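Worked Example 4.2. Consider the chain below.
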Amino acid sequence: MNEHTPEPWGYTEDADDGGGARFVIHSLPWTGEMIAATSSHGPHYKPHGPEVQEDEANARFIVRACNAHEDLLAACEAVEAQLLKDAEGCCPEKLERLRPLYDQVLAAIAKAKETPDA
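Applying the procedure from the previous section yields the following structure tokens:
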């Protein structure tokens, strides 16, 4: 499997071929190569309308999630390791209280590492 474009990523507003707004997601510094884009156009397109605002929010979310992914995964893995270490020889009551957190951390790690369907 190929590796993704290294972070950090950013986004820039641009015009798409259909005359609508497009938010281009790219590596930083931008070399002119696009990673992905969100785009609004069509018969009901209005500059700065709700569709464009949503597209920009989507681009912002994608960039934020991608830039934070490795750090968040590492933090979850560190919490998992610490919880396992703390569980050694621990009292059952404390383990019961920590179990939901441990399960949540494991679920987050699994979700971060899963390969989505294309």
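The longest helix spans residues 50-87. Strands lie at 9-15, 21-27, 34-40. Compare this with Example 4.1 before moving on.
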